[in-house]
Amino acid sequence: MSKDNDLSIPRTETPLKTKPSQPYTLIAPVEADGFSWPSLGSRVRADEDEEQEKQRVGRIADAVKVILEELGEDVTREGLLDTPQRYAKAMLYFTKGYQTNIMDDVIKNALFEEDHDEMVIVRDIEIFSLCEHHLVPFFGKVHIGYIPNKKVLGLSKLARLAEMYARRLQVQERLTKQIAMALRDILKPIGVAVVIEATHMCMVSRGIQKTGSSTVTSCVLGAFRAHKTREEFLSLLSKRSI
What we know:
By secondary structure, this protein is an alpha+beta fold. The protein is built from eight helices and seven strands; from the N terminus they run ααααββββαβαβαβα.
């Protein structure tokens, strides 16, 4: 990118290029323009018009044709004629979280002043994401809890927040932390806790091929680091009726 096209928002390093003593805590989850840790390329993508997006689909489709040919397939046969275009459009959808503005597209005006200081939990939020190591799916459920500090967030926005981060190339550990830190940054709550349970196809369908296995990750911030608060949260998650 030339200097003439430099973006107005100054950015130094991404969280993955820094090595702080506490990962991610040196980078604000929500940036000045409302995005959240996107690459420079995703900012360009977010501003594309219909014609530019069409050209992007074409470039991805051309690359997919090469992959299919290298796999030994005939890209001219009936079943694969439209596959490159379909795949390109699917990949843009699977990664649409890159071009989502966290404040304008997700949170909007759903922050409310409320005199409530007890735990709020939304559990069993279904997510679908792509493992950045193999570009194959992992999927499961997210459980989010927080203790408000004079502000609450519309409940559906918790699901939208999880969806935004999931619709990127991810690792489950980072996804868990990003959701928790963004919520902390937006709400300034007393505490935040996020738990994700997911099945990874890179583990189930290749490599060790252990079907039925699942991965559980958590991120607890603020008051949830206290043992009693964390135990209450985990206890509530384990109950099917409260």
